[in-house]
Amino acid sequence: MFLELSLEKGAFDPTGITTCTVANVVCTLCFGKRYEYNDEAFLSMIRINADFLKATSVVNPADFIPWFRYLPIPAMKAAQGFYEVLNNFIAQRVEEHYTTYDKNHLRDITDALISISNDKRNDGRAPPFSNDKIISTVNDIFGADGKIGLRSPRFDDRKDLHYTEAFISEILRHTSFIPFTIPHRAMKETILNGYLIPQDTCIFVNMYQVNHDETLWENADLFRPERFLNENGKLDKSLIEKVLVFGMGIRKCLGEDMARNEIFIILTTILQQLKLEKCLSIIHSAGYPLPKLL
Ligand code: HEM
User: Fold this and answer.
1) 182 C-alpha to center of ligand 1: Å?
2) 210 vs 242: CA distance, rounded Å
3) How many CB atoms lie within 10 A of CB 148?
4) Which positions are annotated as binding heme (predicted)?
5) Which of 26, 35, 54, 140 could form a disulfide with 42 if both were Cys (CB 3.0 to 4.6 A apart)?
């Protein structure tokens, strides 16, 4: 039975036990509850989640030609069906939480989301979280888990973790920790954008300026990974290419791919394996300025 439930049959989870364990961790986080491995509702939720991920992994022609979305493409119809079942499972759990909710004793993520939605803002604006938003947020947490789970992250995961990739690009852009390229020499007299560059001139590319150019980046000084995501939460690759940290032209960094892979693995491993806490007193005593909260 567990074999049948495996998200990645054979590869890292031949028995399906890892899948069930991961799903239980997510259920505990979201609903404060562990399920028995033979619980029918739990097993069917795992099956649906796996089917949903499989159905959404196929290429969707509507991503390339938008009006294809009106055509009855079977894989997309199936994905929508799985999504609705999963959403209903989560909606039921959220509904149960409303009946037992105690604002002085938050049990899990669902309770925390309900507490935010109950916060009445003084300025009379609508609360930030509607019921639908709570359900879709919990659903996102289930979906996010399906990408890596408890196994070690690998290079291949980069294509699925859009926000992580956006976050890394925003670090590279915002810090521009290598502000200039190494010096280059004009091999011959050149005219660039109407400027004369005599032969043998020493040239640096000001990458910091490009990465903080307000005509390219709205509110360039803000740290905002979302700027690299489109309305579907997918990475906008054309924007990533505009970030200049590895130089440009034929002498650009040879190690860009390797560096991006390494940053991804180190960052995701830290986030997965370690618990991070603010340590303000040490930051103070070391004399570093406190980070500006945005
Ligand atoms: C975040 C990490 C890294 C950053 C930001 C970075 C950035 C740069 C920059 C700005 C240049 C100069 C480009 C120019 O002047 O046009 C450069 C050159 C170079 N980088 Fe990197 N680099 C990184 C990691 C690496 C790694 C991991 C390797 C090798 C495994 C590497 C190998 C090279 C080499 C060989 C060059 C010289 C290329 C040439 O002159 O033709 N870099 N890098």
Assistant:
1) 9
2) 8
3) 17
4) 253
5) 35
Give the largest Cα separation in the chain, rounded: 77
pLDDT tens-digit readout, 128-143: 667 788 888 887 776 6
Q: Could you give the CA distance from residue 281 to residue 283 in angstroms, rounded to a whole number?
A: 5
Closest C-alpha to 168, from 221, 210, 213, 225: 225
Q: Is 110 helix (H, G, I), strand (E, B) or coil?
A: helix
Report the residue among 246, 248, 251, 258 best suited for mutation to probe ligand 1: largest number of ligand atoms under 8 A from its CB: 246
Q: For residues 243 and 173, is the Cβ–Cβ distance under 8 A?
A: yes
Per-residue pLDDT of 236-274, as tens digits, reads 999 999 999 999 988 899 999 999 999 999 999 888 888
162 Cα–ligand 1 center, Å: 24
Q: Which residue has the higher pLDDT, 122 or 73?
A: 73
Give the atom of ligand 1 at the shortest distance from the alpha carbon of 262. 27
Residues 6+ apart with CB under 8 A from 109: 29, 30, 138, 141
User: Pairing state of beta strands 202-203 and 184-185?
Assistant: antiparallel
Cα–Cα dist 160/147, whole Å: 7
Asked whether residue 202 is marked as a ligand-binding residue, the answer is: no
**Which of the four pLDDT bands, split at 50, 70 and 90, describes residue 17?**
low
Q: Which two tokens stand for residue 169?
A: 């690009």
Residues in the chain: 294
Domains of the chain in sequence order: 2-151 (no CATH), 158-285 (1.10.630.10)
